[in-house]
Write a structure and sequence with these properties.
The chain is α/β, with parallel strands linked by helices. It has 10 helices and 6 strands. The longest helix has 14 residues, at 179-192. This is DNA-binding response regulator.
């Protein structure tokens, strides 16, 4: 796997590159600003970009805006946001424009290198990996009277784990229930959110987007 890193801190850039190398993942470019990210992806055509949120010149949201620019020119290109900040507006834009192959991890909450490498591989493989803290913050913005209010506490718990990118088996293991029970909960979620089967839609992704406030 070939990766581009966008991080304005030289030490963090080198640290992430070293972690990736130890996991057998090649860093083909490491840049310190948004335009550098866009140019590096164009030049090297990597399999994934690891992107910080705050980079020069204003150190606010340049990283996420550059990630959106990359996805606009390369729909579905895998992006893993790796930051110490939750930037809700552009995070929702990034997830909402196509939830597949998107990740958002908070630096201080990654306690194990293997978890980070697993997230890199999962996002590169087309999965969605969202930090539970981001899910919690986005959920806190929801208003009463919306379709999600019809969900049972267990269904909301299952949907929250879906939003973290967990498979049915992983959800079953986390909740100590059977995979069949998880499937029933997910069917109930689809029904209450009005997500009917359709060949052109991915109901699991649509449910997650509803949970995150975009659908």
């Amino acid at each position: 796997m070939r990766v581009v890193i966008a991080e304005d801190s030289v030490l963090l850039r080198e640290g992430v590159a070293r972690l990736l190398a130890d996991g057998g993942i090649e860093t083909v470019a490491a840049v310190g600003d948004g335009p550098g990210l866009v140019a590096a992806v164009e030049e090297h055509e990597p399999d994934l970009a690891v992107v910080d949120v705050r980079m020069p010149p204003s150190h606010t949201d340049e990283g996420l805006r550059a990630a959106l620019a990359v996805r606009a020119s390369r729909p579905g290109f895998p992006i893993l946001v790796f930051s110490q900040y939750v930037e809700e507006r552009y995070a929702l834009d990034l997830i909402g424009e196509g939830a597949a192959a998107v990740g958002y991890l908070l630096k201080e909450r990654v306690a194990d290198v293997s978890d980070f490498l697993d997230a890199v591989r999962r996002v590169a493989g087309g999965e969605t990996v969202i930090d539970p803290e981001l899910v919690t913050q986005l959920l806190g913005r929801r208003r009463r009277g919306e379709p999600l209010d019809a969900l049972t506490p267990r269904e909301r718990e299952v949907l929250g784990l879906m939003a973290e990118g967990r498979s049915n088996l992983a959800i079953a293991s986390r909740l100590s229930v059977t995979a069949g029970a998880v499937e029933k909960h997910i069917s109930g979620i689809f029904l209450k959110l009005g997500l009917e089967p359709a060949p052109e839609d991915h109901r699991r992704v649509l449910a997650v987007l509803a949970y995150l406030g975009r659908a």
